[in-house]
Amino acid sequence: MRRITYPVLPGFQNDSTSRDAANSMLPELSFLRSECARILKGGDFTADEVADAIGRSVLAIRPRITELYKLELIDDTGRRRPNDSGRKAIVWHWKHNAPSSLDYDAWIANGVLR
Q: CB neighbours of 24 closer than 8 A, spacing ≥ 6?
């Protein structure tokens, strides 16, 4: 049986607080990723803009954006916009050839996830 790890599951460092934080996201993971996908399918946004649109903390959304990138569902547009801290942030967009569903079991069965 295939062991599912990051980026399908939240990532963590090898310490208990990082692991606990990642595990605490599991109940919301699918919902948050789906919300991120919904926003990004509608246009190009920074992670902070996605968080604002969803009404969630950037601390909950930035990792979901990274996971979607690692899953090859979104791309860096090459553009940058300032985030709330004033630093430049990547503007992301949904890949046009990305699967429309975030059904990881189906992806594994169909060989989308390696």
A: none
